[in-house]
Amino acid sequence: MSSLNVSVMTKFLKAATLGTALAVAGGCAAVGVGVPGGGDSVNTDLFKDEKDFLTRMDKLKSVTGTDKVVTKTEVLNILGVKAKKLRNMDRSEIRGALEGTGPNAMPLVKSTLTADVLKCLQGSSFQYADDNGKYAFNNPIRWQKETKGFNYNVQMIFNTCSGKEPVVDTVLDSGGPTYSKRKKTVFDLINSDSFSLPGM
């Protein structure tokens, strides 16, 4: 197919899809209806809800914040999570987590963690997120997407050289409640090179 035909076909598809979107938007705007917009849900089966997750994390932090030796099995029992649900961290991620250098960790020769220390460390992590998005149409040419929910990341570093079973070295968590509101108009679609329906 020639580039001219592709261009004509693309314009036709834009116009057809845009017409459909406007019809739906017009109907929703007329009755003031919010339309589900999906969201990012990760590992929502791990916990009953956000409150359950936070309660378990608070308990884990209170236990690991003492001089008590806490095994990996005990950690999993507190969280109520099976080991197979966790993602294994590589050495670079472990070093980045412990030194606060993130994904672009320092080269090992400049690190405060020696190769011998790293050999004894094992890392497990998981993300727990549920962002619910909803579209609201103000009128046939303008809409907004509102997202509410939460997004947490947990990293747990264990020492495997201190006994028969790995014990907790460090527990790090980040994230929290999420909220965002993004607005678009039909003109954003017309002017965009890569056309898509009201996704944000």
UniProtKB/TrEMBL annotation:
The keyword Signal applies. Keywords: Signal. The keyword Signal applies. This is Uncharacterized protein. It comes from the Bacteria. Residues 1-29 form the signal peptide.
